[in-house]
Amino acid sequence: MKDKFKIGIDYGGTKIEAILMNEKGDEIKRERTAYDRNYDSGISTVKKFVEAFKNLSNKTATVGIALPGFSSNETGLVQNANSNWLNNKPFKKDLEKALNSEVKIMNDANCFTLSEAIDGAGKDYKTVFGIIIGTGFGSGLSFKRNIIEGANQVAGDWGHQPLPYPTEEEINTKIECKLPTCGRPLCAEQFISGPGFAKNFNLKHNTNYKAPEIVALDKKGDPKANKEFELYEDRFARLIAVMIGIFDPEAIVLGGGMSNTERLYKNLPRIIPKYAFTDKVRTKILKNKHGDSSGVRGAAWLWD
Fold first, then answer.
1. Angstrom distance (rounded) from CA 97 to CA 43
2. Tell me, which fold does domain 5-110+293-301 have in CATH?
3. Which among 20, 55, 127, 156 is least surrounded, fewest beta carbons within 10 Å?
């Protein structure tokens, strides 16, 4: 019997990553490359990866794609992608034509969640909520190692919902989301994503730091950075508490650049009970196991 292989593709805004795994989830090969930020370049880059990896796998590999948006089950067109050239394009159809084979496509936050639920930090839990806090702020729901997409294919994606219980300071920031399908002044992504966190800090202090630099300042004991993190953790806890009241997962797994901030795993469990409607918060807050490769692994697992 021939070995079964899986190809996963993570279609990012500036880079495309590919992984070849066997049916046990062992990594055979992984590569990442930049591409021209346009539709045709993306398809040709994915095609090169798939052709190269299929040559390593006896031409038998399945192909899954993690997309920064979603491919509509109703129209076949991509929606809500932050890589704007994908929106309203029949990406799945065009890619299958280029590859001459079927592919499965899902939102990248869903793929991250699937990866961590199958053999990552959430593998021992029945219900898992995966959150990516990086350039954007996305999330996904997993039940018994299956993704819940929902009727509108946006289940769990509360990153563009308004910040709960906003303070006067937050209301007065007037920071609006630029995404056409959002545009809300209290959009959660503008406070919780890495760029959003940095923007709030820089506006207050007339600085030009990036999020990792503010993390470094906090580790050195900078009081301004520490104060901003206290605000950040409170905002994040409010969002999580609202989500717990709806999905109530056993585990929450964090990914993306901000997930490397170790203080979150100590402080969020302490703050969430202030806002959650329960006697005790039993949900675990966990760091991802597979790191930057988690989404691409989830794409490969789509065929399971």
1. 10
2. Nucleotidyltransferase; domain 5 (3.30.420)
3. 55
Same fold, 5-110+293-301 and 123-288: yes
Provide the pairing of β-strand 251-255 with 146-147: unpaired
- pLDDT tops 70 at residue 1: no
The structure tokens listed for 189 are: 């992504």
Give the phi and the psi of residue 13 in degrees, each rounded to 5.
Answer: -70, -30
Q: What is the CA 71 to chain-centroid distance, rounded? A: 16
Number of residues that make up the chain: 304
Q: Is the pLDDT of residue 293 over 90?
A: no
Six-digit token string for 35 = 């591409």
What is the 3-state secondary structure of 151-166?
CCCCCCCCCCCECCCC
Q: What distance in Å separates the CA atoms of residue 158 and residue 301, rounded to the nearest whole number? A: 24
163-201 per-position pLDDT tens digit: 999 999 999 887 888 877 788 889 999 999 999 999 999
Q: How far is CA 246 from CA 127, 203, 243, in A?
A: 12, 34, 5
Tell me which CATH code domain 123-288 carries: 3.30.420.40
Domain edges within the chain: 5-110+293-301, 123-288
Question: How far is the C-alpha of 98 from the C-alpha of 43, rounded, in Å?
Answer: 8
Relative to beta strand 78-79, strand 70-71 is antiparallel
pTM summary value:
0.93
